[in-house]
Amino acid sequence: MVLAAVGQLCATASITSNLTQCQNLVRKAAAAGAKVLFLPEASDYIASSAEESFALAHTPDRKEFLSVLQNSAKQESLHINVGIHEIASEHRLKNSLVWIDDKGAITQNYQKVHLFDVDIKGGPVLKESANVQPGTEILPPFKTPIGCVGLAICFDLRFPELSLALKRQGAEIITYPSAFTVPTGKAHWESLLRARAIETQSYVIAAAQAGPHNEKRRSFGHSIIVSPWGEVVAELGEDHHEPQIATADIDLDLVAKIRREMPLLRRTDLYPEA
């Protein structure tokens, strides 16, 4: 078994402050003996408007955010999975999830496929597609010290086809770094994560943003690790006053045991393979 750490923070429009929080989490994960640290979606910044978000993406601080984390990964011999913004075009951004290995190299880069466009009664109105370019492919799962990892981001969680496709390609762990709203978090966060774990018989690791990012937006928190049997094996609450981690051992023998003893033989003669 290998120890994984899932982090939680409250990102704002201050990239420098967010980087400090992430470095704090890196130190905590390394001190705990974790081999991988999972950080939330948009760990580099959360802006109060599309215009501010696009402006921040073009600052030197955004580039430094990633390079400093690469150095931290190398110094601590720690793999880091972190959600960031990248520039897609003159008018659009990418909601990306990168994997930094323990040598400080970026080895994987997933672009969020399903974008969050909602109008919640009594809650926020968010239209991610207004300034974010959707991804066009599922990134094949890849080997890591904790097992074979498949990458997904936040709203991807609501589409089981993606997680099933990752499992079919060999994923043993599926990630959902997120910035879930409070209303949707209270209603669906744990239920969806446990469902994805049960139906794919995989570990699910979801690092979450927590607390008020600005006057317009607040995230639910509750970073979590779920076993392939659907059990919550590590979880944080809603506290946003300081960055936190939770840890759990990733047991690949358990993944194999569950898949062997509870075989899920899909009837793809009756329905398309997800």
TrEMBL record:
Cross-referenced PANTHER family: DEAMINATED GLUTATHIONE AMIDASE, NITRILASE-RELATED
Places the protein is found: Cytoplasm
Gene3D superfamilies referenced in this protein's UniProt entry, alphabetically: Carbon-nitrogen hydrolase
The protein, known as: CN hydrolase domain-containing protein
Alphabetized GO MF terms: hydrolase activity, acting on carbon-nitrogen (but not peptide) bonds, in linear amides
Assigned keywords, A-Z: Cytoplasm, Hydrolase
All residue ranges annotated as the CN hydrolase domain in the record: 2-252
GO annotation, cellular component aspect: cytoplasm
SUPFAM superfamilies according to UniProt: Carbon-nitrogen hydrolase
Domain of life: Eukaryota
Family per similarity comment: Belongs to the carbon-nitrogen hydrolase superfamily. NIT1/NIT2 family.
Stretches that traverse the bilayer: none
Organism: Penicillium capsulatum
